[in-house]
Design goal:
alpha+beta, single chain, two-stranded antiparallel sheet, 23% helix
Length: 279
Amino acid sequence: MSTLQNKIDFVALISVNMANANGDPLNGNRPRTDYNNFGEISDVCIKRKIRNRMQDQGYKVFVQSDDRCDDGFGSLSERASTTLKGIKNREEYTKKACETWLDVRTFGQVFAFKGKDSVSAGVRGPVSIHQAVSISPVDVQTLQITKSVNGEPGEKRSSDTMGNKHFVQFGLYLLKGSINVQLAEKTGFTEEDAQVVKECLRTLFVNDASAARPDGSMEVVKLFWWQHNCKDGQYSSAKVHRSVKVTLKDSDHIPSSVDDYAITVEALPGLEPEVIDGL
């Protein structure tokens, strides 16, 4: 497998319909918004979903969520110490970690665990992802919910046993990211790995359904993928990302679907994007 040779930039458009795209634990798990009510999905949330999709495709992942653990290890420290046991040289340690786990050579990882045999090391990954931000302000709705059954024996169900369910009425979010060749050379990130990341982005919400995100409520509408003809890129990532223009067709209309937006890509001479429909 050949190490990545050409810089890559990408943009994904994500639609959210009656779903909590990314709850904020410091705000009652309400969907994340900024002070101007633009919706946000954190980069950490996006990376978690990409890691899940990597696992779904059969790749080894270092940072696994508890409900998706597939190797029996109960912590990152245990996974690292067992898999990398006996390696004392830092360069050899990180090289083995990158070879073993796809997410390490993709996003990087800090190895700083307790124990006399542990090795402190850091890996900078080639794939960087911004937080996704909605094109327009979003309307966050709250529903009150009640219990239909008793949780404990003898418990009396009453009107005060209520909870809240928060969701975004509709939002179109823009996600930006890049893949750096110089860092790919250091972690061994390959052309094949880049294709895996592309597929993970295209299918980001497969097997991701929950009560807060019912199947069909979140969708990757379009994925724009630029592969430059050199290591440093023909254009800056910022300029490439800005080339995707998403505007409301009617500025006085409150958007309720993707069809309310005009999506265009500004031409960059010598650099054409691959435009992919999401799943």
